[in-house]
């Protein structure tokens, strides 16, 4: 804890276990019951998150990254979403069986989230300082002028110039990067133990992306938060994340330390993703893309969900679902993980 | 880095400079102040409201005194607007008639905004079976035309000869509320549905805002403007319906004084003495126009996108 974060912070009722484990997602399933049928968005996802750790969740659009995040936050619209099985434990307590009111009070002070589109995540009708201050009014019953003072403090912390003057300006008076900083200020206002960032830089231009990632990394280091970084952009997380989980069609297909993931991918999908990043030193070559599209979640292929797009697919891939298993230092859900790992 | 920040924002130093939040209403007010139409309509409405509260400020004549020897007189220094078929002073009766219209209009607008607003927000925000139920109820009431509903209701519960003035006015307000709220409810529901999927509502949920706070801070400020505009414009409509019911002899009835009653009485002599009809009609039109102008001005001010 630093001097900036200790002001009137109440002691949390939740303590991580002896290993510093904050969050544990265990065999989570999420379905969406729509008129077109049942879309199986999440099919048995498990991961955990420790204090001071950054976990990257990677995957294409529709792979279930955001749904996982929203299930952890408890902000899925139910219905149409249904969670048929699984558990999400925060400091040992199952969030899915917790009364909604208790769970709501955890959002903000314990688990917090920032969103992809900073341009629309702020309410256009109120000044930004009012919106940051709302965190303190809602959760700590603080009065208006104290909440404003806290807002100024947080805006300075996320490096918004002239915070004292700008605290009363409206969202449309800020640039995209500044708005994302304000969103981050709101999310960290109550010192959450876990911060989920759902594609925090996707809507921003490249130079601003780096600044926002640096800010997140700095805050995470300073407050020893557990950070879940959801992105489809492998370039964004390389410097920041400790571990990564790769999702495909609602499953985690690979888990690895961030260096292993980039240097020695153990799943054909991970390798495909890495090969499809444009590289400056390979000018003139055709960019390797993964052929085909991610599966429709109402009709996930039998066997390995990736088999129709996989260059290595054999008969076994079309019948048997590969389990997530240890391969060297990593985990991979591929029947031929060793072959992939060894090139 | 953190140390320098802590030094610059020592408690108190930061708090002193931080004044009031500029709320949405204050902002709307700032843009209203610059609008000419707003001031014209406010001036007109101000005069009408003053007339309603304090009619003796405008005339010393007794609106209940009919000079049977001087009926259907044309405008003169003695009788500015002339006298009607009963010998009443038209100017005095037109001034006193404002009260019924203004009370009915304002009360009915407020009650419809409240009832329709609450039901619309509940239906739009919670959705599901509650929405289905409330929407069907809204449809049922929406299907009954305001005038028809008014006629049916007032004909079923007619005023007695000696009914108290406020009972009669209250009855008209009640009937306008019962048949007038569906417009607001439907409008409110649809604008809540438009606001609800916004990412800032999701973000507010993710940061632990309670449903009540989400409605109050995020849904209402962004969804209320159209309802306020329509409620203001409806105010004019309700004044017209009140006049219509009175015209038909089932709204306000004599001895109550109202523009609708005056217009109804004037019809007998419309060809020979049109001035008897002219003045109450003119005031009625001006009042309706004033509220519609106000509604337009308020719409422009409350729409954050127009700023």
Automatic annotation (TrEMBL), chain A:
Residues in coiled coil: none
The protein, known as: Peptide ABC transporter ATP-binding protein
Its membrane topology: Peripheral membrane protein
Database matches in Gene3D superfamilies: P-loop containing nucleotide triphosphate hydrolases
Keywords (A to Z) from UniProt: ATP-binding, Cell membrane, Membrane, Nucleotide-binding, Transport
SMART domains, per database record: AAA
Listed GO MF terms: ATP binding; ATP hydrolysis activity
Subcellular localization: Cell membrane
GO cellular component, one term: plasma membrane
Keyword ATP-binding appears in the UniProt entry: yes
Gene Ontology biological process terms in this record: peptide transport
Family: Belongs to the ABC transporter superfamily.
InterPro entries according to UniProt: AAA+_ATPase, ABC_Ni/Peptide_Import, ABC_transporter-like_ATP-bd, ABC_transporter-like_CS, Oligopep_ABC_C, P-loop_NTPase
Gene for this chain: dppD
Sequence ranges assigned to domain ABC transporter in this UniProt record: 23-274
Pfam families linked to this entry: ABC_tran, oligo_HPY
Automatic annotation (TrEMBL), chain B:
Keyword Membrane recorded: yes
Name of a matching Pfam family: OppC_N
Transmembrane segments: 37-57, 102-128, 140-157, 163-184, 223-252, 272-298
Keyword Transport set for record: yes
Primary localization: membrane
Subcellular location per the Swiss-Prot or TrEMBL entry: Cell membrane
Keyword set, alphabetical order: Cell membrane, Membrane, Transmembrane, Transmembrane helix, Transport
SUPFAM superfamilies in the record: MetI-like
Gene Ontology cellular component list: plasma membrane
Stretch forming the signal peptide: none
Xref: InterPro entries: BP-dependent_transpt_permease, MetI-like, MetI-like_sf, OppC_N
An individual GO BP term: transmembrane transport
Domain ABC transmembrane type-1: 98-295
Membrane topology: Multi-pass membrane protein
Family to which the UniProt record says this protein belongs: Belongs to the binding-protein-dependent transport system permease family.
Protein name (record): Peptide ABC transporter permease
Origin species: Knoellia sinensis KCTC 19936
Lineage: Bacteria, Bacillati, Actinomycetota, Actinomycetes, Micrococcales
